[in-house]
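Dear H.,

Thanks for agreeing to be a second pair of eyes. The structure we're designing against is below in token form, covering all 159 positions.
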């Protein structure tokens, strides 16, 4: 009987520890992806995303084929009040493909959660503007003769 009680206590503690680990590991951090983003839902989208220039990183939560959200820390750039997100080396990551299948995502900026959609950008002139905005915001420099890594960009739009 004592053994059963002790076994249950260990099971309860272990379950609590697992739940705590999952909750702590929900948000992404630097290069470590996460699950659900937490914060306060923002009811309406801003008329200008210029405030994102003050944020070095934001978070994006995408839907996955296995029904558990996937979130990553990412850079963003604002051009004329519009928000753009880019993925460096997108072929090496899963989330860009998941966005292709379901463009509805959640962005976390500060403590605000924004339900938006991501639309791929293919216009060369628009991409050039986005690259300039990224270079300015993140003080990126190009080296003569170097080939920049492959990039893919999305325009953040209302759902």
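And this is the sequence the design step returned. I haven't edited it by hand at all.
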């Amino acid at each position: 009987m004592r053994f059963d009680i002790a076994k249950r206590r260990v099971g309860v503690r272990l379950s609590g520890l697992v739940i705590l680990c999952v909750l702590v590991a929900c948000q992404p951090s630097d290069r470590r992806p996460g699950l659900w983003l937490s914060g306060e839902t923002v009811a309406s989208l801003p008329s200008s995303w210029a405030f994102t220039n003050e944020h070095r990183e934001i978070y994006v939560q995408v839907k996955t084929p296995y029904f558990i959200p996937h979130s990553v820390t990412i850079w963003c750039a604002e051009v004329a009040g519009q928000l753009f997100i880019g993925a460096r080396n997108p072929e090496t990551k899963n989330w860009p493909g998941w966005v292709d299948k379901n463009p509805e995502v959640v962005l976390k900026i500060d403590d605000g959660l924004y339900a938006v959609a991501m639309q791929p950008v293919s216009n060369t002139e628009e991409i050039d503007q986005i690259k300039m905005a990224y270079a300015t915001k993140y003080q990126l420099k190009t080296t003569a003769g170097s080939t920049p890594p492959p990039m893919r960009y999305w325009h953040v739009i209302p759902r």
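Two observations from my side: The two ends are 57 Å apart (CA to CA). The helical segments are 2-24, 95-101, 124-138.

Warmly,
E.
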